[in-house]
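Continuing the batch. This is chain 6 of the set; chains 1 through 5 are on the previous pages. Same settings as before, nothing changed between runs. Recording input and output for traceability.
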Amino acid sequence: MKKKHTRHWIRLGTRFFYTYLTKSEKPSEIISSSYDIIAHEYDKAWTNSMQHPVEEMIVRLSPETGAQALDLACGTGFVTAKLAKLVGRRVIGVDASKSMINVAKDKYDKYCDFVQSDMMEYLHRQSSKNLDIVTCAWGLGYSHPFYLFREISRVLQPGGRVGIIDLSKFSNWKMYWLSLKILAEKPESIEHKINVHYLTNCSALKWRMQLNGIQVLDAWDGFKTFYLNNAEDVKEQLKNTGSVAVFESIIKVNHKEWFYNRLAEIIQKQYGRNKIIPIVNHYIAAIGKKR
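Output for chain 6:
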């Protein structure tokens, strides 16, 4: 007999409200622990496939030789190393995930210096008007963008530039909606609260930069589609890219395998066994200059 999966939307809402009231929010620690798990598969699953959009951001940023640069949310160090080769000097990469930093050191320690730290906490410790270039790829949504740009603006010298690329709020919204429906089957699986701040579009990105004294030189959006062969591939892709890290990070440890198995089960039912499954990631990007 086919098992019926009942969704408890009221209980889900109550559970979210309960965690909001009773749990302290430590987004950096919670998210970084999720990325610790996937660090060794991250480049294969994400960096290599999203290389072109990131390289486009760096080209438009046009860092000058000798510039002092900082790469926030550096992950495994791809952007950090690209910057180091362009500016001809060591670049600092900062990430909250210890495992990501370890992978970055193994790959690019020759060109870069890597620091394990929450990026806002790191910026708070830096002197004002001290940097020529700041970048942040795929990490803006894990911060408060307005306050992050305020700190970036503070540490940049006049005329210094910032390059940003991040997923939009509605990137891969079908997977987010599906994740919510799965959690509605077991609201008790939710253990933590976490707030993320993905921006909806380029306009939202631009005005946050402008309000913090950063002149927007260029802004654009785009998308990248992953074509996967079956639901198991989709499950592994989402796990190893952090695409549903927000949902995974709020779930109890002993419920995570259930969550991903249900995800694969539902996707398999929707697409069947013989169809290619598309996963679309929408991104926004901008280049700015401190006034």
